[in-house]
User: Fold these one by one.
Assistant:
Number 1:
Amino acid sequence: EIDIMKRACEISAESYIEVMKSIKPGDNEQEIEALFLYEFAKRGGRFPAYTPIVAGGEGACVLHYIENDKELAASDLILVDAGCEYKMYASDITRTFPVSGKFSDEQLQIYNIVLKANLAAIDAVKTGNSIMEPQMVSEKVITEGLVELGILSGDVNQLHKNGAFKDFYMHKVGHWLGLDVHDVGDKEEPFKPGMILTCEPGLYIREEQIGIRLENNILITNDAPIDLMSEI
Ligand code: GLY
Ligand code: MN
Ligand code: MN
């Protein structure tokens, strides 16, 4: 099962790398969706594991945006949440990147906060922990980031305790992954080697039309977690 899921992740990662090369201002979101489906199928992943989300600009702030019908502007970030299914197993990946190929300073600052949250969450995926540890770690990093950005002010621990981040990070850090993209299982079950879950913190600032999420698939082991999306 793990080998099949590794291949699903590899196909998804390779597809991102291919499609990213061709994205340009003026493309329609649904063209990008079609390119992903093509790259998946070319590698043996005929179906997506879920309806792809291809969201330029403010669409990225709508969590399950699947209209995928807008034109991309050069100043937009594009959020793509598109994973293939391979031999009936799911992969689930999100990347957010600039349509023009170059981040603005503000976009980069926010991107780096989400990247830090993603990496910190992955680090917390250890046998014996449960989803609560990456959840908390990601919330803390996002809260710190919101203070750095000047969107929140006050003591980070207190803001975290009060849930002040929830207007900007309003979903959970991840979920089990397997035959289904949101696979079955007790959400808070302690991590054991062989389990696979997603780590997908995000930061969504509607006023700035910026929504950023980074989502990787993580294999739990007795040692360090294995990031099945580390290639991208
Ligand atoms: N693609 C659905 C999710 O990230 O949970
Ligand atoms: Mn996803
Ligand atoms: Mn997910």
Number 2:
Amino acid sequence: MKKYEEIIKAYKNGYAIPQFNTIDAEYTRYILEECEKEKSPVILGVSEKVANHLGGFKVARNIVDTLIEELNITIPVILHLDHAKSKESCEKAIKAGFDSVMIDYSAYPLEENIKITKSLVLENPNTIIECEVGTIGKNGNEGIVYSDIKDIERIKRETNAHLIAPSFGTVHGVYKGEPKLNFELLDEIKNKIDTPLVMHGGSGLSDENFKKSIAKGVAKININTELKQAWTKSIRKFLNDNPNETDPVFIIKSTGVEIKKVVSNLIHVFGSNNKA
Ligand code: 13P
């Protein structure tokens, strides 16, 4: 699978490909333009919520394809369904042409997680399949259940999933206090399985935490919150500075600069620049 090879290349060469979660055409455009400028491969993350907001998985696929064509994007672009809660959702996304899906059955018993992940891998030989083991918390260290190394070994052995997202101390949303990452767990995983790992909850971590994680097998890093913060900050500022502006084109356009700053900074930290 050509697109999976991009992630393997990152894994083998000590850098990570960013997954930037997107919400619409403009947002996607800014991400693609900056990644193209930096010659960085990119994964565009779309959640079920965003796919619904857009009108369906096909809309997301078409937005990405049209932008690639119109903007002359030459870097590898992987369209990924983030945190799907059902097999049906994954299948719909795959049918619409998504390159990659994450089935998030982390809240279910391991047996069920294995069963659904395995069936997706077997039935979709041309799609990258990601699974989560343990529970990645949300909003300030809440609800973290660290992955058990035995569960990770088992899910890899029994499903042959392409990407595994372990829970090692990261959280979605905003961190409260210092994040405490369990690097020993990453070392153990690397010793037992030879598979690229996914870091969820990348927003708000230090450069040092990113670099250490990449050195220990993380080859895909998910960023959502930091982009959302950049977007809302820009809109707030623009409307404060221009209270009489009513043209959405100008209002939304104001988000481009801040979104591109986030994208460019993280590409350099992850080392994915000039790898496309
Ligand atoms: P953040 O909320 O830290 O940006 O995490 C995003 C994520 O992991 C999406 O799957």
